[in-house]
From TrEMBL:
Gene3D superfamilies: Fe-S hydro-lyase, tartrate dehydratase beta-type, catalytic domain. PANTHER family: L(+)-TARTRATE DEHYDRATASE SUBUNIT BETA (PTHR43351), L(+)-TARTRATE DEHYDRATASE SUBUNIT BETA-RELATED (PTHR43351:SF2). The lineage of its organism: Bacteria, Bacillati, Bacillota, Clostridia, Eubacteriales. Pfam families: Fumerase_C. Keywords: Lyase. This is Fe-S-containing hydro-lyase. Signal peptide: none annotated. InterPro entries: Fe-S_hydro-lyase_TtdB-typ_cat (IPR004647), Fe-S_hydroAse_TtdB_cat_sf (IPR036660).
Amino acid sequence: MEYRLTTPCTAQELAPLKAGDTVLLSGVVYTARDQAHKRMMEALDKGETLPFDLEGSAIYYVGPTPERPGEVIGSAGPTTSGRMDAMSPRLLDLGNKIMIGKGKRDAAVKAAVVRNGAVYLAALGGAGALMAKSVQTLEVIAWPDLGCEAVRRLTVQDMPLTVVLDAHGGDLYEAGPAAYLAAL
């Protein structure tokens, strides 16, 4: 199935999605990689507010390259999501609903996705230029000293993504190979 979603999203809006579905995502997406996640954890530990509202948010694990003249963003391919696994359950429990990246997630992240009615979406690794075409606006909103890992607010239109983890426990990285092997 193909779905069109606009952020922020609720658990009810994400409930119909199943692992393997296609999503065209529009709205605001925040960028945050490892260093930004570490700073978010430090801020939460100190009781400080985060640079964006987590409720219904989408976080894209990307460190975009500098834009060329006339472009909004440079290459914007996903980074490996596993580096955020230790921090993702806390953000999901605080309202984050969509994570975007590439690669498998650990059991704690999978449990937090189900517990919170969230999803993990895969962006096309190696296709950063394609992902960049979805970005309409970009604004650095926190920690510019992190360079490409600074938190950015992106406005995206029809960003093509695939559901990897759904709110029902579905995992495309497990179901896909199993379906292939069963068909042999």
